[in-house]
């Protein structure tokens, strides 16, 4: 029961951070972009191959408000990570469980 409460709390905190706190994130370039701009490397930059994807550039395509788009992308990203990682965990757990059941158990010594 405590494990379920932990994961529920973790999910709520993740959604709050992704959906609400990201609203207050700076829209200024990060440190790497600043250094690239200062050193002249920014002239060589090209658009990322996935820039036109639904989650390209930390936003959701079709949502005009930048901050709302970023928060929505965060919430959807948390959900996507949860589904993919949960599916992997469930698959690995099932495979590990079937192998563990097929191995003979060691009987405790009684002498």
TrEMBL record:
Q: Name one Pfam family in it.
A: PDGLE
List locations, semicolon-separated. Answer: Cell membrane
Q: What is the superkingdom listed in this entry's lineage?
A: Bacteria
Name the InterPro entries for this protein.
Answer: PDGLE_dom
- Bilayer-crossing regions: 7-25, 72-92
Domain PDGLE spans what residues?
4-94
UniProtKB keywords:
Cell membrane, Membrane, Transmembrane, Transmembrane helix
Q: What is the name of this protein?
A: PDGLE domain-containing protein
- Protein species of origin: Actinomadura algeriensis
């Amino acid at each position: 029961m405590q494990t379920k409460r932990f994961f529920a709390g973790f999910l709520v905190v993740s959604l709050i951070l992704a959906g609400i706190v990201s609203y207050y994130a700076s829209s200024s370039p990060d440190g790497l972009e600043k250094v690239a701009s200062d050193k002249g490397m920014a002239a060589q930059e090209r658009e990322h191959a996935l820039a036109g994807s639904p989650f390209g550039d930390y936003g959701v395509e079709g949502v005009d408000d930048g901050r709302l788009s970023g928060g929505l992308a965060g919430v959807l990203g948390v959900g996507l990570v949860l589904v993919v990682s949960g599916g992997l965990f469930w698959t690995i757990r099932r495979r590990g469980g079937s192998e563990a059941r097929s191995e003979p158990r060691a009987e405790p010594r009684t002498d």
